Amino acid sequence: MWGFSRAQAIAFVVMVALIIVCPWVLYPVFLMKVLCFALFACAFNLMIGYVGLLSFGHAAFFGMGSYIAAWTAKHWGITAEAAILLGGATGAILGLVLGYIAIRRQGLYFAMITLGLAQMVYFFCLQAPFTGGEDGIQQVPRSPLFGVISMQPDMHIYWLVAVVFLLGFLLIHRVVHSPFGQVLKAIRENEPRATSLGYRTDDYKLIAFVLSTFLAGIAGGTKALVFGIATLTDVHYSMSGEVVLMVLLGGLGTIFGPVMGALVLSAMENYLAQFGAWVTVTQGAIFMICVLAFRRGIIGEIGAKLRIQL
Amino acid sequence: MITIFGIPGPLLFGQLLLGLINGAFYAMLSLGLAIIFGMLNIINFAHGALFMMGAFVAWMLLNYLGIGYFPALILAPVIVGIFGLICEKTIISPLYKLDHLYGLLLTFGMALVIEGLFRNAYGSSGMPYRIPDVFQGATDLGFMFLPNYRGWVVIAALIVCLATWAIIEKTFIGARLRAATENAPLVQAFGVNVPRLITLTYGAGVALAAFAGVLAAPIYSVNPNMGSNFIITVFAVVVIGGMGSILGSIVTGFALGVIEGLTKVFYPQGSATVIFLVMVIVLIVRPRGLFGKAA
Amino acid sequence: MQLSRRALVGGAALATIPLIRPRAQGQPGVKIGVLTDMSGTYANTTGMTSVVCTKQALEDFGVSGKGFTAEVIYADHQNKPDIGVSIARRWFDQDGVDVIVDVPTSSVALAVQGVCREKNKVYINSGAASAALTGVDCSPNMVHWTYDTYMLAKSTGGGMVKTGGDSWFFITADYAFGHQLQKDTTAFVTGEKGKVLGSVAYPFPGTTDFSSFLVQAQASRAKVLGLASAGTDTVNQIKQANEFGLTQTMKLAALLMTIGDVHALGLATAHGLNLTESFYWDLNDRTRAFTDRVKGKVAGNWPNMIHAGCYSGTLHYLKTVADMGAAKAKADGRATIARMKAMPVDDDCFGKTTIREDGRHLVPAYLFEVKQPSESKGPWDYYKLVHTTPADEAARPLADGHCPFVHV
């Protein structure tokens, strides 16, 4: 099914089952946060895991998506699905412009350039009047889905978030397993070779980047509606760092790793919230441990143990 | 009052001076990054945190041991440099055989840990560090008002940058370093202990950051975030300059500081973004950077 | 590195057993959540000392034997509205928190205001400056306990003109809070027949070097330099103003500053500075007694007005709960706030006071000047009183607030 192996299909069914069961047991707002970040992390993983480019500026797309969705929902009163899609479109357009500049360099330079470009977006958001500066866009209404289904109760919007996440997740999976995805892998493994085979590698990279930023924008827009707020946190570079950490912790280039990473990190932040800067210290320490001793990440390790690809 | 382009002279020159000072910090930090990158092939994301550590060590020396500014200018870089050596030996060196991105991620983690620890211990509101008595006060240059300490920062930074350049380009050890950067296995075969050279390079680059930190301590309050405010801009400076040339890093650093200062005069809102804009333009016109070698 | 990978996987998996959904609680007890800045710019101004002062209120009230229990928890909102909102939601939905205390940083304070109202809980704000909290964004679920931009502007602006500082120059943080502060202060300066000679806005955040703005201020030849900013920025400006010798020709007025910042600067740098607080530990016997009880509990930080507000607000809340019964107080935040407004307030920090209809707790504002090093007799002996604005004049007139539920 859709290019899933048997093990992956089982894992996927388990994940869907958990998504359905969990809100009856766990706090739905927390789960929605996890799902938004999981989608964001999956989008990021598309770049690092399948194209081999580390973008250190993905917060720009997540944050701008969140701002635009929040602003349109609040001031134009558009429906939930339209606001989320507009968030995605914003991510894609911004991704096209910034990606066009950034893919001129690779490797470490690509990381530094995306970081710099995202910082520029951050300063723009800080000063542009529509973002509300330090206050952010507050009290964003959870406008009804298709204009009819109320999104006010947590459990209603939960299903919307779950569907958005699953669609995004399947889209990425489909793309990775398409001929287009195979070319991306070829570029990651050996770019000169791919070029010599006649592929315009820059175009492929740019398309992948735009897809990734589109989904990042979707994730940001969804989060803005769930929490009713869009702020500078979403565009700040530490958000870019966080998504890198989620993917690294879950397992670079695995399908389910980003989801696991988003879950673990969000849970950790919840518990550590009262300990101030220890959140930062713990995140840093996890980064270092992952890089030094745990490069396959949680899902990667489990997969290696069971000798399957997850 | 003199006016230039309708801008009061003191304001213009004042901003130029401030630009030079920021430029001095950009130059010292990007220089360290470039040296480390040359030998270790990693981008040291912890550079900003180590810059902050330099300022904090100076502050601690003063407040716990009563050691003043000038000894701290030597001692703090040595202490932070040794810390850097230990980090390189224990956690950075295992990464050399891996993708360079792991080095970036590891040092990013290091930066978070260092900053977080200092924030836990000292809060983030910042500690005062007094300007040494010799540099108290200001000199009226006629066309502008020059605070003595700021003048000293520009001069000290220039001296250190040029000395670093001279060591790398004109001395025997610098020659080894350059050779090892070009072709490490060959230099190793000639009997040079390359791993030790790498460790020392990292220590030296880090010490340079710490030196900048001590210089910065009396200007900015000593606080755990002072490094992260700088480091992203410094990355942009590195991208603009390209990492091929030592002198290039120095020139780019100072020049961008001045550009930033001028922007503050003519269009203050743009001062935060102007360096990134320059980066975009350079990437479009000359992707490898102003002084970068062709890929 | 010898790290058991299984242990790591296991540990990570354990961390994901979070947040079981709330259950109804058996015993009557109120839970007080101090939502504050534990690690950022305001960590000393609010932070742990706010938590300690809130706990001190429980201790002084003596909860045992009053028919209910009380408990204090706290969290760090990192000065980010989104984090503040998500903690507040979790506290209400899950942890059974009944009242949120402190919440510095206006952006976070306003965001939390919405959540408290939606969930009908009690909100005692001590840390935030925005006068909108009792103005256009007012809420029947909140009391603004300690100070606001109006009070700071009136006390510092009006008070300084009265004592001779009649020409002003502003250095303003270029965001809503800074501009509001400048606008309000300007109104009082001109209202007292003073003059504003100019102003300059600096990019916020991210400015660490203020010398060019200071040079401009110096050139204006104003008598008073108004610093419309907060936290580290203000501290940096004062340091640099000293460096440029500004303090010899101008009086510095920090429009939002507390005693902890003065302590951090040191009297050698801060002397001559003017600022407004609604509490000072050395005002009278009662404030000294309060300070003696709390000052050892956080190393190197004595209470300022915000800390005192956390204490005073929590104490009054507990008295109200005892009065109306814990079950009733927990069920309806709006009713609890209404009851708090009806009851007279009395404690060691602010003495006998009242709470106004719009949620403003009415306290006098004191304009202080920071002492010369030679005048200071002991630890934290920093302020001398210059001018007092009485409680009813220190708050913005009800009609000017445009709070929707207040009918004047």
Descriptive tags:
heterotrimer; B: 295 residues; ABC transporter involved in vitamin B12 uptake, BtuC; two-stranded antiparallel ribbon; 4 strands; C: 408 residues; alpha/beta; Rossmann fold; four-stranded parallel sheet; 15 strands
How is the secondary structure organized here?
The complex is a heterotrimer of chains A (about 300), B (about 300) and C (about 400).
Chain A: H1 6-25, H2 28-51, H3 59-75, H4 80-102, H5 107-127, H6 154-176, H7 179-189, H8 191-196, H9 201-227, H10 237-250, H11 257-272, H12 278-293, H13 297-306
Helix pairs in contact in A: 2-6, 2-9, 2-10, 2-11, 3-4, 3-5, 3-9, 4-9, 6-9, 7-9, 10-11, 10-12, 10-13
Chain B: E1 3-4, E2 7-8, H1 9-40, H2 47-65, H3 69-92, H4 100-122, E3 138-140, E4 145-147, H5 148-170, H6 172-182, H7 184-189, H8 194-216, H9 226-241, H10 246-266, H11 274-285
Antiparallel strand pairs in B: 1-2, 3-4
Helix pairs in contact in B: 1-5, 1-8, 1-9, 1-10, 2-3, 2-4, 2-8, 2-9, 3-8, 5-6, 5-8, 9-10, 9-11
Chain C: H1 5-14, E1 29-36, H2 47-61, E2 69-76, H3 81-93, E3 99-102, H4 106-118, E4 122-125, E5 142-144, H5 149-162, E6 167-173, H6 176-191, E7 195-202, H7 211-219, E8 224-228, H8 231-243, E9 251-254, H9 259-265, H10 267-270, E10 274-277, H11 285-294, H12 305-324, H13 326-331, H14 333-342, E11 345-347, E12 351-355, E13 361-362, E14 365-370, E15 383-389, H15 391-394, H16 398-401
Parallel strand pairs in C: 1-2, 1-3, 3-4, 4-5, 6-7, 6-8, 8-9
Antiparallel strand pairs in C: 10-14, 11-12, 12-13, 14-15
Helix pairs in contact in C: 2-12, 3-4, 5-6, 12-14
